[in-house]
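User:
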Amino acid sequence: MKILAVDTSAVCASVAVTQDGKILSECSINTGLTHSRTLMPMIDSALRNAEIDLSEIDYFACSVGPGSFTGIRIGVAAIKGLSDATKKKCIPVSTLEALAYNLSGQDVTAVSVMDARCNQVYCAIFSVEGEKVQRLTDDMALQIDELGEKLKDFENVVFVGDGAKLCHSKLGYRLAGMGNIYQRGSSVAFACEKNFSEEKAIDGAKLMPTYLRLPQAERELKARQALSNKK
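Assistant: Predicted structure:
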């Protein structure tokens, strides 16, 4: 099974082409350039380096959140377009679950964390035993101190994700290695493949972002409306 997978949920953008658990090519950019500029050239490069035509891809995998609202929309829109053009189905993957696969091959409690600003993180906890990754919590949006309370029940904790260093500075615990701390397209593909079923494969038109909280603009609008209603 050939998979083209993308992750645009944070500053780092990553694209990978995999086949039956093997990485054929992978490209990541963490320069701060907008994903709308870099994603399609990265997809083209990943396919060319893997020597695979787009028509040979069996499924598209996409991290659908949580994460950057704009970044996720760009990735989802790109995969929607590719799915529609090729008539191939796509599989949505939790950004936090994909991050846990960065630690595959170890025996740890993987805590996937993404900086949600305002001293909050998007987070989820996973058990990693060799190649087996098991979800222990739902995806959550928590204050960092709240996450710290939850982690008291776990051992051998390792932070992974773009919020890992922030959580490490406040809570301690170990960090993932530098090569595995940020989002990776190959991990999106592996999460897709390990949990694959035909029921999870959907048409591109049905692919939607998954947010754990409203965008800041909507939150501020609701706050202003609530204040206005009190007057």
